[in-house]
Amino acid sequence: MTMLQVGTNIIYAYVDKNNRYSPLNMANKIVPISKPYDEEGNLVMYPSPGYNTQMNPLIDDQEGMRVDNTIQERFFGSLYLNWNITKDILFRTTLGLNSVNVRRGFFCDKNSLQGSGKDSQSYKEHTMTRNLTWENVLTYSKDFSDIHNLQAMVGTCTILNSKEYTYAGGKGQVYADNWFHNLYSNEKKSL
After folding, report:
1. Which member of 26, 60, 87, 158 has the greatest number of CB atoms within 10 A?
2. Using CA atoms in the order 49, 55, 59, 65, what is the torsion angle rounded to 10 degrees?
3. pTM of the model
């Protein structure tokens, strides 16, 4: 009979993704005879003749017009210990940790679909979540004459959860190539 048993399970995940704003909303509204490019192959910002509110749905595909990047890291781990104190008494303790760290950086130029020719916008969001669980269980199990069985269990569970969220952003960024890395260069506050 094994008196002591130890085990663990660890998972780590890293995701770096770029989110795309759907151009279909604008494409559904634009005049069908619109030409997205001029004779020289340049993208036309307002391709619908006589409509200066219908932006080209392809505008966000231009370099530096829009960046929406999310990086997520997740660590999940658990550690357990089983101890057969006697033939009838088992003690088990388990410690589990779940940690999630998410950073989203966003920038859209004033001439992007979301900027609509008014203001650029940039912001950075950061969320950290921590969950810790510690469980202790003491089990007593006894057989009497093969016809009776007595079992008793006592346990404790401690749970700690924390979450932290930070947001910073603004409008009217002076230099578009900063994207969301220099929020101080915004001239206006964002709500």
Report:
1. 60
2. 140
3. 0.74
Place 184 in a pLDDT band, splitting at 50, 70 and 90. low
Q: Are 109 and 57 in contact (CB under 8 A)?
A: no
Given pLDDT bands bounded at 50, 70 and 90, which one contains residue 102? very high
| Each residue's pLDDT tens digit, 132-168 | 999 999 999 988 877 888 899 999 999 999 999 999 8
Q: CA-to-CA distance for 116 and 51, rounded, in angstroms?
A: 13
Contact 94, 83 (CB under 8 A): no
Alpha-carbon span 88 to 83, nearest angstrom: 11
Element (H, E) at 97: strand 89-108
Nearest-angstrom CA–CA distance, 86 and 109: 70
* Cβ within 8 Å of residue 96, ≥6 positions away: 76, 77, 78, 79, 131, 132, 133, 134
Q: How far apart are CA 177 and CA 185, in angstroms?
A: 11
